[in-house]
Amino acid sequence: MIRINLIKAEKAVAAPKKEEKGKKPVPTxxxxxxxxxxxxxxxxxxxxxxGKENAALDEINLEKAKYIEVEATLNQVNEQTETIxxxxxxxxxxxxxxxxxxAIMDELSKSIPYWVWLxxxxxxxxxxxxxxxxxxxxxxxxxxxxxxxxxxxxxxxxISSTQRKMKNNQFYDFAxxxxxxxxxxxxxxxxxxxxxxxx
Length: 199
Hints:
CATH topology of the domain at 112-180: Gyrase A, domain 2
Low-confidence stretches: 9-15
Largest sheet: 4 strands, antiparallel
Helix content: 55-70%
Structural class: alpha+beta
Order of helices and strands: HHEEHEEH
Strand order of the largest sheet: 1-2-4-3
Number of strands: 4
């Protein structure tokens, strides 16, 4: 008869397993501490990054304020430059009128015959208003003919010629209009130094 010892087998099955040597369970507070430290480090890094960004933003704002001041200064300079350019243009215009007035009087005096004299000359929009006195109407006609021969004058017209008497003297008051054509500006003189350099 065969016998099997079941008691020993039950003991072997029921025997508790021995824990592996060298392996210990990680405690939960340690994990929580690591998480807190990591979160604190991340927060500190974020604060540093935000501080750098704010510092950079402050620098940009300072630069922007400087550029705003520079822009305002440039606008002021541009306004002053525009005002100065207007003044220069006005001065040049007055100079051109002054030169024209000298040229006009020169041309009128060249054409005037004896016993004719001018009392008033005005110039506006290239139109001359000439007033004067002459001993006779023939002299007024001669003066008009001389004006018509002038290359810078055209459309010479007699507006009026009235006989006057002053004491025992007889004369004619006359008014003439004419258009003055400005002469072409003369070309600037060539520099001798430039010719020598080309050679």
